[in-house]
Amino acid sequence: MKIKETVGIDVGKMKNEVRIHTNQKYKNFDNTVTGITSMIKWTLASSNYAKEQILFAFEHTGIYSQQISVYLTENGFNYVMLPGLEIRRSMGITRGKDDKIDAKKIALYTYRRKDELKPYELPSKNIKEIKSLLNLREKLVKQRSGYKATLCEYKRFLKRKENTTLFSVHEKMINELTKQINKIENNLMDIVDNDENLKKLYKLLTSIKGIGQKTALFMIAYTGGFTRFETWRKFASYCGIAPFPNTSGISIRGKTKVNNLANKKIKSLLDLCAKSSIQWNSEMKLYYERRIADGKSKMGTINIVRNKLLSRMFAVVRRGTPYVDTLAYCA
Asked: Which helix (H) or strand (E) segment is 258 a member of?
């Protein structure tokens, strides 16, 4: 059924500011299950449209928006989660900050694009858990790196006998963090092994030379099991490895380059995969050496390899068969 009404929600830690676009009715509710239930009842009572014709919209605010997205999904409502930057740039020149006005602008932006926006589909429970565990692992790895760096400096400038507490506490923290990181990695693999679809995706991705465990899990999590992006080119744009022109009239003739708006974590993983593939994959190594011999830039060539690996990941998933190294069969 065609969308005829939009509802903008400014999601907060404690309160949700809600604005109905067509009649401009406004109210705030607690960000709890009870508050969200009251919000839905108020919206249906205040609007002249059926629930199938109403589109709810709010920013993706992590854990704060998780409860409302789960509720809307379970009760069959249409909704979209929009990037905060997308909404801010649609507002034009603004001054000040007000949650009530933000809800109004979210509703207006969604109404203007109601025919283009696709309702959001919540990823499966296992994919959400994988994403949460990967984020937790990243935090623990950063903390461990901090302790390791500090311990290295202590060893260089301090005597252990005179600073036994400093040394022992840092070493214990590093050991405990390593233990917890290993536990998370084991939990991640248990989730994959107990889900046939995720297990198949994981095996397909790791069949490509240069794609390891960590990259495969991140790809599964951030593509929603390869359902959120229609093509690998769209995902390349999302993770910041797709080149874009940089020209304007006759005054600007810049080089084609990647954009800074990107998922930097995925981009860094693909960069490591590309460098590993150049080192250990004969096909990529020959390709890299040939372009460098032709005078092409190293970073430009590495970016091409990143795109090649990404296209192969999408290809094996779409085809449903592992990657075949055709170079190995050459005479």
From this structure: strand 252-258
The rounded distance, in Å, linking the Cα atoms of 103 and 9 is 5
What would the pLDDT profile of 162-209 be if each residue is shown by its tens digit?
999 999 999 999 999 999 999 999 999 999 999 999 999 999 999 999
Structural domain including 156 reads: 125-194
Q: End-to-end distance of the chain based on CA atoms, in angstroms?
A: 58
CA atoms of 104 and 21, how far apart (whole Å): 7
Length of the chain: 331
2-21 pLDDT, tens digit per residue, is 899 999 999 999 999 999 99
- Helical pair 164-193 and 196-206, crossing angle rounded to 10 deg: 110
Report in angstroms the alpha-carbon separations of 190 from 29, 97, 123, 126: 39, 45, 18, 10
Amino acid occupying residue 212: G
Q: Which helix (H) or strand (E) holds 300?
A: helix 298-319
122: DSSP letter: P
CB 268 within 8 A of CB 262: no
81, β-bridge pairs: 58
For residues 108 and 145, membership in a common domain is answered with no
Instruction: Tell me, yes or no, whether 50 and 134 share the same domain.
Output: no
Q: What gap in Å lies between CA 246 and CA 199, rounded to an integer?
A: 41
How is residue 318 written in tokens? 């779409």
Kindly give, in sequence order, each residue whose CB lies less than 8 Å from that of residue 328, ignoring residues fewer than 6 positions away.
Answer: none
Pairwise CA distance, residues 275 & 237, whole Å: 20
What's the CA gap between 81 and 246, in Å, rounded? Answer: 30
DSSP string of 189-245, one letter each residue: HHHHHT-HHHHHHHHHHHTSTT--HHHHHHHHHHTTTTTS-SSHHHHHHHTT-SEEE
Please state the pTM of the whole predicted model: 0.90
Tokens of 235: 């995902």
Does residue 99 share a domain with residue 167? no
> Considering its fold, how many domains does the chain have in total?
3
Angle at 239 between CA 135 and CA 302, to 5 degrees: 115
User: Residue 255's pLDDT is what?
Assistant: 81
CA–CA gap between residue 226 and residue 308 (Å, rounded): 17
